[in-house]
Write a structure and sequence with these properties.
Moesin/ezrin/radixin homolog 1; 2 domains; 6 helices; FERM_domain; actin binding; alpha+beta; 5-stranded mixed beta sheet; FERM_CS; Ubiquitin-like (UB roll)
């Protein structure tokens, strides 16, 4: 039996279940150069379909994991700081929080009111692309960026092309 660790939906880390322990998480965070590991953990879907945190001090097969040929674990934020500006030291930690919160909002796992979703999308695009320049930001520039939850797109009865004016 083997397992895959899903990280940000596009990076897979294969590993042997016999070796999964706290040292594996340490090895993973070293790979991405993350020192603030206390905020993060490994999550899996248990036999009842609930998201559960992997206890790294227990053997994997002693936990309520599905007995499948390939197990999937997600590297996720387990705790959030109260004051991001004061408590977060590394840019990589901030980036990981941003990506997870963005994913939770876009998938509607965390509700975000439409006006705030549009505002957050504008901030994300400003950070990614900078100020709008007509010669630089041609039509279709935002075509590959998922910016808003489907619920917000449906609410305003606009298709994706109407939202992506750039």
């Amino acid at each position: 039996m083997s397992a895959l660790l899903l990280w940000m939906r596009n990076l897979n880390f294969p590993f042997n279940l016999q070796h999964l322990e706290n040292s594996y998480l340490i090895r993973l965070v070293k790979t991405i150069n993350l020192r603030e590991i206390w905020y993060f953990g490994l999550q899996y879907t248990d036999n009842k379909g609930f998201s559960t945190w992997l206890k790294l001090n227990k053997k994997v097969l002693k936990q309520d994991v599905k007995k499948e040929p390939i197990l999937q674990f997600k590297f996720r934020a387990k705790f959030y700081p109260e004051d991001v500006a004061e408590e977060i030291i590394q840019d990589v930690t901030l980036r990981l929080f941003y990506l997870q919160v963005k994913d939770l909002i876009l998938s509607d796992e965390v509700y975000c009111p439409p006006d705030q979703a549009v505002l957050l999308a504008s901030y994300a695009m400003q950070a990614k692309y900078g100020d709008y320049l007509k010669d630089k930001h041609l039509p279709g520039t935002l075509a590959n960026d998922r910016l808003l939850p489907q619920r917000v797109l449906n609410q305003f009865k606009m298709n994706i092309n109407e939202w992506n004016i750039v």
